Amino acid sequence: MAPFKAKSSPGLSLFYCKQIMYPTLSDLIRDLFGVDIPLPIQSFGFMLAISFLAAAWTLQQELRRKESDGLLHTIRTEKIIGMPASFTDLAVSFLTGFVIGYKLFYAAFNYSAFVEDTQGFLLSMEGHLVGGLLVGSAMAFLHYREKEKERLPHPKTVVEQVHPHQLVSNITMVAAISGIIGAKLFHNLENLHEFSDDPLDALLSFSGLTMYGGLIVGAAAVMRYGYKRGIHPMILADATAPGLMLAYGTGRLGCQISGDGDWGIVNEAPAPSWLPDWAWAYNYPHNVINEGVPIPGCDGRHCMVLPDAVFPTPLYEAVACILLFFLLWGIRKRFSATGMLFSIYLSLNGIERLLIEQIRVNNKFDLLGMNVTQAEVIAVTLIVLGVSGLYYFLKYPIRHDPGTARKPV
Q: Are 29 and 35 in contact (CB under 8 A)?
């Protein structure tokens, strides 16, 4: 992808783009090193994975700290050991391996098609039957052999002490699955016309994710998971607050790098002297959703550019939220009242999003005579909840059980 010259409106404005979109990691590697390595990895998905890892790391650090401060304690769990592999265990292992092998072998023998349309490839019914049977059988056998090594003449029940930070991998998995479901759900609620036109694609496509939907549903699922394991929801909320802000910021970097449509309104105002043109008004060439008009002389999947430069709002949100992460991380030890840090996070997140919505493209609907966006309503709600939480947790501090170990609820 080389820089291109654009024409001004009524066509495109006349300038050379100094920043190019990277819909896939292959585009970035090609631009940086001049090497064409076809990889089936979209840049947004890659940054989303980085976001979950970053949030998981901060959560683990916070859970360790809160346990050392006496706010969290080990969790007693009972586990039966020495049992042989059950039919259900073996069946699940086989089916999991079959799906992996079915797609993996087919991708290996049809790699070009896999890279060209990764989403369609994964969601199709096409695959390699022999590969599925081989990998499925191998996984079932390995699971059987592992259980046989641990098998006892008489299975017994043992009690284990689990530290809260040891649950981070499970919490991350819960957040990832529920967050993606929530992001898809809120996007489809906000774009009912797209859903009605093609419900299956709207539900299964990798595009079309609403950040707030992922945040709300993911947070609810994580709080429920923690509560069932004896972790107070507000302690867990405080522990997740810095990581949530960081993950939101790095996720928005993925939106900016790939050009996934989360940009702002047309910006024709002159750029401030201290700000690069592309950080003030940007055409998003080679954007991943193929929005705009064709780029002259460009061949390939991502050859569109916006006809008018817009505010690069994902970039603004990324910078703002990463800076807010450092703020939350710096003040996290200064509050003795549980719930305070999460309330501050809610307030800051709501203010940030409410401000950015003023220059962002989004669907609006009528609410009590006002034209508002879904994000504006949620942002105001978060601000109200955050401010209310600050007052409530200061006036009615949560008292914690000083016990040493708890059984899951």
A: yes
